[in-house]
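Notes to self, MFS transporter:
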Amino acid sequence: MSQPAMETEADGPGLLSRGGVLRLTGAGLSLIAVCYGLARFAYGLFVPVFRAEFDLDAGTAGAIASGSYAAYCAAIVVSTVLTPCFGGRAVAVAAGVVATAGTLMIAVAPSSPVLAAGVLLAGSSTGVASPPVAHAVARTVATARRNRAQTIINAGTGLGVAIAGPIALLTHEHWRAAWLVFSGLCALVTIWTALSVPAASARDPRTDGLRRALPRPALPRGSGRMVAAAAAMGVSSAAVWTFGRDILVAEGRMSEQSSTIAWIVLGAFGIAGAATGDLAGRWGIARSWTAIMLTLAAATALIAVAPGSVPTAWAAAAVFGAAYIGLTGLLLIWGTRLYSETPAAGVGLAFLVIALGQAGGAPAIGALAEAAGAPVAFLAAALVAVVGCFVRPRP
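result:
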C-alpha cells in the first residue's frame, strides 16, 4: 500500500502534502462520522422499535446504552496505548472494522443478547477511532494546518448524527435494512481509511513503540485543568444527549417526528464545530472555551424552559450541537498540546473523562428529574456548564 505524498523538505520532512492532508482529513471525518453517528449514537433513535421487536423494558434498554458507554471507555484506553505502538493507520482501520462488525451484528440480531453484544461492539468503535486519527494528524500535518484538520475531523460526529436521523425516519419498522446500510457505509469508510491515513508507525523516534505508549509524566502540568473541564462538559451535556428527546415528548408533548427532526438538526449544526480550530487560533483556547461553554449552558436551559415550542427546541438543538462539537474540538487541541510527544494520550484522556462525566451525569440528572422534574434537572445541568466555563487552560 503506497504512502500518501509528502511535503517538500522546505516544508518539513515527513509532513503530508496539501493533497495528502485533504485525503487524511476526509477519511478521518468519515471514520468519526460512521463510528460516532451511526455505530454509537444511532442506537437511541431506534430504541422504540428495538423495545417492540425484542420486548425490552425501559431498564434493559437503558442498561444496553450504559454498556455502550462502558465499552467506549475501555476501548479508548486500549486505543491510546496501542496507537503509538502500531501507528495511526492500523488502529484507525481497526476502528472501522469494529464499527462494521457491530452494526452488522445489530442488523441480523435474532435475540436481545445478540442485539446487546452488537450495540456494545459498535459503541466501542468510537473509543478506538479518536486517538489514532488525532495521532496521525499531529504527526503528519504541518502546524499551520493542524488545528483546522483536527477540528474538521472531530465534526464528523455531527455529520454522522445528521445522516442517521433521516435514515431512522425513513426506515422506521424496516430497521434491519437501516443497520445493513450503516454497516455498508462503515465498510466503505474503513477501506478509505486504509488508503488515506499514514501509518506513522512505531518506527517514528518520537513514539518509540512500547516504551512510549504511555506519556511521561502521565499527568503533565495543566492536565488537571483539562480533566476538570472535560468532566464538567460531560456532566452538563448528559442532559440533552440522554434525556433531550424525552423532555421534548414528555414535557413539551412534541410529536415523534418533530423530536426526531430536532435530533437531526442537532447533528447537522454540529458540523459547524469544525470552525473551532480557526476560532481557537483567533481567540485562544481559554476565551473560546468560556464562550462556548456558556453557549452550551444557554441551549440546555432553553430546552428546559420551552420544550413545547418546536421552533425554540430546534434552535436550541442546533446551538447545542454546534457548541458540543466545538467543545470536543477544543479539548482535542488542548490535549494534543499538553501531550505533544504522545498526542493520542492527550486525546484519549480528554475523551475518556467526557464519557465518564456523561456516564456519571446521566443517572444523577435522571434522579433529579424524578425528584424535581425534568426542567429543573436541565437547569442544573446548565449550571454545571456555567461553572465549567471558568476551568480554562493557563495562559
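- Residues 1-11, 201-211 have pLDDT under 50 and may be disordered.
- Residues 343-372 form the longest helix (30 residues).
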